[in-house]
Predict the 3D structure of the following.
Amino acid sequence: MMTKTKETAKKAMDRPMRVVGKKYASVSALVRDTAEAEVANKFDKYQADRRLINCLTVIRCANEVTQVELAKRMDCAQSKVSKMESSTDADLNFGDIISLHYVRAGEKERSRPHPIPHRMHQARVRQVG
């Protein structure tokens, strides 16, 4: 018995590719124009779920910073940076975002005291949530 993913892949391979002679403003526009509606919707959702991650990756690359360099600045392993960049926005934790902020500011996270003592922060989170 063939799984649904394998079935979908087989259908895609059996279908002849459509050659399109026009330019697209984005990959999303290309997918919407050339793929089935279900695939296009899943792609758009995937892109939306990664909006923050994509921005952070573009900023890193625009500043010509490698994952290894960023990891050293964040005081973590390169694999953590890679995992962050291949995840979704919902997978990011607040600590990672704080670390990225301090890297951007040129400071080490550990050299800066947290503005809210830990117990006060927990109390505020409980009141809000």
In short: The chain has eight helices and no strands. Helices lie at 4-14, 27-34, 37-49, 51-62, 67-74, 78-85, 94-104, 118-128. The chain has a mean pLDDT of 77. The domain at 52-111 is CATH 1.10.260.40 (434 Repressor (Amino-terminal Domain)).
